[in-house]
Amino acid sequence: MAVAAASARMSRRQILVTVAVSAAVWLLFSSTWPMLPVRLLVTLVHEAGHAVTIQLLGGDVSFVIVNEHGGGLTSGRLRTPDSATARVLVSSAGYLGTAVVGALLLEGATRLRRGRVAAIVLAVLVAAIGFAWVPWRVEPDAFSAAATGSSSGDGRFTVLVCAVAVLLLVGLAAQPMVRLRTGMIAALATTFCLASVDDLRRVLDLSARGGHSDAANAASATSLSSWMWAAIWLVLGGAACAVGVWAALSKDDQQESPATPLEVG
Questions:
Q1: What is the pLDDT of residues 169-206, one digit of tens each?
Q2: Which residues touch 110 (CB under 8 Å, ≥6 apart)?
Q3: Each residue of 134-181: pLDDT tens digit?
Q4: Which whole-number Å values give the CA distances from 217 to 49, 82, 221, 245, in the listed order?
């Protein structure tokens, strides 16, 4: 039984290859249409990071939506809108929150029932976002609509995204192929960790066109530039992924060692 369980787990090499390939695919092709379903899920978690932080700071969240272009929008009001600290925390929470979720998923892909718990927890998280903050119809203001590509129909679209994501994640948790489940969770976790790269790309593009981004929001409240904030989020996202990989590999060592005497004897 121990040998069978060990063979079903992802090995150290498989974990590293999965993370490396997932990172390369996301960095190279995240803007292409085949990656749109993953981008929508990443954006949903990103926007939820803003919403959670607004509420933790005592503010009110009006809605969280994503759109068919892969963008997203969180509308809310801070209790202290002039507070630079609050604005930085809310601006940073999208990318840092997504990176933290990614690190936890990556570690949980191999630790808790071989990824099953991680898939179910993510499904519950997506369902909670949908119930708490996604309305059937929204009316974004003109500036937000132009900056994010959002429209009045994005509430219904986001409800559909949440429903499909929950069904797919529950299906992934229920299916019996352990390596498929852990591999997909590890790949998804890696994209979450590296989502901050997207803002760095957007800053490079939007800064040239005078556009707006989370990094620009953070920059407006501090002496750091939007480029600096994007770089900070990129480093922290990469660090979160590294911690998740380390935890997954460390657990793999602990699980493999007891099986060695059984294989030798």
A1: 999 999 988 888 988 999 999 999 888 777 677 666 66
A2: 9, 10, 15, 182, 186, 248, 251, 252
A3: 999 988 888 777 777 888 899 999 999 999 999 999 999 999 888 889
A4: 15, 12, 7, 31
Distances (CA, A) of 4 to 1, 48, 91: 5, 39, 46
Mean pLDDT of the region 84-103: 92
- The Cα–Cα gap between 9 and 182 comes to 8
C-alpha span between 159 and 127 (Å, rounded): 9
- Round the average pLDDT of the chain to a whole number and report it: 84
Give me the residue spans of the domains in the chain.
8-254
What is the rounded CA–CA span in Å between residue 28 and residue 20? Answer: 12
Count the Cβ atoms, other than its own, within 10 Å of residue 87: 19
Q: Which amino acid is at 102?
A: G
Residue carrying the six token digits 């793999």? 252
Instruction: Report whether pLDDT(263) > 50.
Output: no
List helix spans (H) across the chain. 2-8, 12-29, 36-56, 84-111, 116-133, 142-148, 154-174, 178-193, 196-209, 214-220, 226-256, 259-264
CB 107 within 8 A of CB 19: no
User: What residue type is assigned to position 21 of the chain?
Assistant: V
Q: How many angstroms separate the first and last alpha carbons of the chain? A: 14
SS3 for 223? coil
